[in-house]
Design goal:
The protein is of the alpha+beta class. The protein contains ten helices and 14 strands. The chain is globular and about 60 Å long.
């Protein structure tokens, strides 16, 4: 069996390497795709602690210098970083080929698609273009076992997004952040027009929206329109959504880990690999660590015979 995990570890996983390692170890994964691997030191620590080989798209210079990585129990045969900054807004598509125990090659692609939800259809168009470019790159592997995994910042067609729950979570996190800032010595921000508008006009409107039952229901109904972007293209090309194939009715929400609102993390298998699929699930805890303690995403696991 080959067990594959896709995991967004939240801006590098800095100071959370031990918790991430315990979650990954509990999944008994042979291959792990890491998204937001901006801290190369954390990737190296995870590889060392778990006894895995590693490949990384680059060493991030700051928190928003998006990188992706792959850890593997199997020997790594080749690594290629596809960088198209005019298309991939999160910069890279990582391609890694490993040798499975039977001696056959398996190629894995790790991606982080743009979020940009507040741009409406413009965000959908960006993600769609990213998937189209990825499909063009992966066409070289057509007819051979390969998979495409990562944080797609999109939901599958017809699946829900609990936008009101997500907004309430974001509001709570924002308030905690500013409470922490206010507790810092010598923090006395000067008010300006933007902060006044945000505090006295925008935030009250948002609170009224997300805590009103009718308006929350409307927001939930509209939210999936702004989290689309190319999953239908993958399905059209024969790529198989591993989690949904094994779990036709389970929600499988992956984000945010502390207030699950949607399924945006995926493992897609090529038809050749999908025929070997035996199991898939979302990992919510492991080795005494809750998912929300390690990252703001839950990892997705897929097993192939």
């Amino acid at each position: 069996m080959t067990r594959i995990l896709s995991y967004n570890i939240l801006v590098g996983g800095t100071k959370r390497a031990e918790k991430l390692a315990r979650i990954i170890d509990s999944a008994q994964a042979d291959i792990v795709g890491l998204v937001e691997a901006t801290d190369a030191g954390v990737v190296e620590t995870l590889a060392e602690q778990l006894g895995l080989h590693m490949s990384i798209s680059g060493r991030g210079k700051h928190n928003r210098d998006w990188q992706v990585a792959l850890l593997s129990r199997y020997p790594i045969l080749a690594t290629k970083v596809h960088t198209y900054p005019d298309i991939f807004t999160r910069r890279h598509l990582l391609e890694v080929t490993v040798e499975e125990p039977d001696g056959n090659a398996l190629t894995l692609f790790v991606v982080h698609l743009t979020a940009d939800f507040f741009s409406g259809q413009a965000g959908n168009i960006k993600r769609r273009a990213e998937v189209q470019k990825a499909l063009a790159i992966m066409s070289a592997k057509r007819g051979t076992p390969h998979l495409f995994m990562g944080d797609f910042n999109s939901v599958a067609p017809g699946e829900p997004v609990h936008g009101s729950k997500l907004m309430r979570y974001m509001m709570r996190e924002r308030e905690k952040y500013y409470q922490q800032l206010a507790a810092m010595p010598n923090y006395h921000p000067a008010p300006n027009q933007e902060s006044i508008f945000r505090s006295f006009i925008l935030l009250p409107i948002l609170r009224a929206l997300i805590y009103s039952r009718p308006l929350s229901a409307l927001l939930d109904r509209l939210s999936p329109r702004y989290a689309q972007g190319g999953i239908d293209l993958l399905q059209r090309e024969g790529y198989v959504d591993c989690f949904r194939t094994i779990n036709p009715r389970a929600p499988g929400f992956t984000c945010p880990a502390g207030a699950l609102a949607g399924r945006i993390d995926f493992i897609f298998a090529s038809p050749e690999l999908a025929s070997r699929l035996t199991f898939s699930d979302v990992i919510s805890e492991g080795n005494g660590v809750r998912g929300e303690e390690a990252s703001d995403h839950l990892p997705v696991l897929a097993e192939f015979r």
